[in-house]
Amino acid sequence: MGRKKRGVVTTTISRSLTGKEVPSGSSIIGKKAAPIGIAPAIVLTNPKYDHNVGQSQRAASCYGIKQLWFTGNRVSLEPEKGKRLPREERMRGYKDVEVIQFDYPFDQFPNATPVAVEIGPNSEDLVDFEHPENPIYIFGPEDGSIPQVFMRHCHRFVTIPTEHCVNLSAAVYTILYDRHAKLQRKLNGNG
Question: What is the CATH T-level fold of the domain 36-187, as seen in this structure?
């Protein structure tokens, strides 16, 4: 294997995981390319399990989030033998969510507010948290925390008040549901 390059091919996951070559309609994100990030968005840092990426894609689709980004190489969009997201996450119902593997996601969101979902001394409790207008929700891996280099980019920090750690995709669902519920209350004049 060669050195990692900063450019990456992106496509919607419903096309990239079918076992076919990457479609010609794909784009390449390079160092000098214009940003393509659409907030609100989700960023998973170095996820370990493909099913959590798939379930996060499903959550994004349920709550109208157009992009799911992930870093690292433990999960792949390449349709190698045994390396693809679960079947239900490859179905056409979730094609409205673009899944992008890219190690420098902050470069793609110049006007968004990065929010780290992490336990920490400065984290706000989700119950009292006011979601920013254009958030990028940053989630750590299943077996670790959000890397410090990512934490330095974050403007806000939020924690989910539970008795124990929750699964990565459960954390994504919880944050997106909370955002949705609070937006609905605000639109109805109750928030």
Answer: Alpha/beta knot (3.40.1280)
Q: Where do the structural domains in the chain lie, given as residue ranges?
A: 36-187
Contacts by 8-11, CB closer than 8 A, 24 or more apart: 8/100, 8/101, 8/102, 8/103, 10/36, 10/98, 10/100, 10/101, 10/102, 11/77, 11/98
User: What is the average per-residue pLDDT within 158-177?
Assistant: 96
Name the one residue in this structure whose structure tokens are 């000098």. 32
Looking at residue 60, its amino acid is A
Residue 124 three-state SS: strand
**Beta-ladder partners of 174:** none
Res 22: pLDDT: 35
What is the arithmetic mean of pLDDT over 180-189?
92
Q: State the pTM of this model.
A: 0.82
Is residue 117 within 8 Å of residue 171, measured between CB atoms?
yes
